[in-house]
Amino acid sequence: MLTGRNLPDEVHRAPRMQPALHGHSTEAEVRVILAAAVKPETHLRLGDARVALSREIGLMNEDFAVFDSVRDRTPALPMGFE
After folding, report:
1. pTM of the model
2. Distance CA 14, CA 18 (A)
3. Whole-angstrom Cα distance, residue 50 to residue 6?
4. Other C-beta atoms lying within 10 Å of the C-beta of residue 29
5. Is residue 64 in some structural domain?
6. Structural domain contains residue 16
7. Does residue 66 lie in a domain region?
8. What is the distance between the alpha carbons of residues 50 and 2, in angstroms, rounded to a whole number?
9. Tens digit of pLDDT per residue, the chain (82 long)?
10. Alpha helices in the chain, H assignment, sequence order
């Protein structure tokens, strides 16, 4: 539940008019507005950046096969607290 007080009329009307333009409920429109405000698209998304970099360089899954061949598969020893 969210209550907005002391909003100008044009701000109060917008969340009721925009859903009609976008084809969803007022509640869905408020969620979209809040999500855009607190999590703007201008933030760097690390996963997207890594994918873009690997595509730019031209890395393929086969390039990482060498790591499987040199990986130490010896089970780790349990941690001791003495």
Report:
1. 0.39
2. 6
3. 44
4. 20
5. no
6. yes
7. no
8. 37
9. 677 788 788 777 776 777 777 788 878 888 888 888 887 677 677 888 888 888 889 888 888 888 888 889 999 999 988 7
10. 9-22, 26-38, 46-57, 65-70
Element of type H or E holding 17 = helix 9-22
In this structure, the chain runs to a length of 82
When divided into structural domains, the chain yields a total of: 1
Q: Is 66 exposed, middle or buried (0-12, 13-18, 19+ CB in 10 A)?
A: exposed
Of 34, 25, 24, nearest in space to 2 by CA:
34
On whether residue 80 sits in a domain, the answer given is no
Q: Which pLDDT belongs to residue 75?
A: 93
Tokens 């009721």 — which residue? Answer: 16
The answer to whether the beta carbons of residues 33 and 15 sit under 8 Å apart is yes
Q: Per 3-state DSSP, what percentage of the chain is helix, strand, and coil (rounded to 5)?
A: 60, 0, 40
